[in-house]
Amino acid sequence: MDNPRSFPLKHPKTLLLLMVGLWWGLYQTLIPMSEFIVQLFPIERDSKLGSALQFFFYDTPKVLMLLTGVVMAMGMVNSYFTPERTRALLAGRREGVANCMAASLGIVTPFCSCSAVPLFIGFVQAGVPLGVTFSFLISAPMVNEVALTLLFAMFGWKVAGLYLGMGLMIAIISGWVIGRLNMEEYLEDWVRNMPKVNADFDSADLTLSDRLQAGFASVQEIVGKVWPYILAGIAIGAGIHGYVPEDFMASFMGKDVWWAVPVSVLIGVPMYTNAAGIIPIVEALLAKGAALGTVLAFMMSVIALSLPEMVILRKVLKPRLIATFIGVVASGIILVGYVFNAVL
What we know:
Distance between the termini: 40 Å
Helix content: over 70%
Strand content: under 5%
Largest sheet: none
Number of domains: 2
Radius of gyration: 21 Å
């Protein structure tokens, strides 16, 4: 991310208020605007194609606007949580407490699989225990602000709250279990032998203008990277929404299909996308009769256990530790899927 002091902003409070007002005004126009655009096409609104197009023209700006707003806000918040500060908060804490702290920090820190290796190395150098490091690496991509905001917007606070609680539970317990297994010997030798360094707090004194700059940089970096996944996810979701018959998904992703949750997790692991790209597909699957727990287990496995992340982590972890990580986290996700299906 660029230096947040790269250009000055005049009247940052006024600019922030104007941006919030403009965002809110545009958001209120999304439904009528999507209906208007569909009417421009020579098709019946209630046809399969018309339904799919309305879904696409409504969800695309909706998801992009939500993502931009959340990333902007969290970019400002994240200016308090640099990698140095995060490592300092976790270093020297005893396990259990540190696992809870690490999982909680994962919610508000902008780190994903692409930064897994440098973060892992930094945590090891700072003396953060292995299990605590895994709690953070599980939580950061899976229980992030983008996923929670989109879940809240599409499914309400109960689903978002359950996802938050279950996701944190997976990150905390999985990290604790890995820590209890004492698998430090399965770190790559060059990582294990690195000299330890002191983790000091980053004391940068940023102004509101600086933090707005950090927010703009986050939007440019994150939204700029994920928008193709969003369009692809919404296009798939629109196709499901318009063309898949009602209750079709219930035949193999419903509550009564006992094997649906583990199979969904197995399908999700080799895929690669992120919360912004997978949630529109989740929304469409649920509308067609899929069970919430099954679909969210699929979503969690795509985000937390993606094959590309495992390839990246192979640079610092030996195969046995990677396999243990996948097994422990997948077991937690499967349990969460069954719990969601049982209570909702």
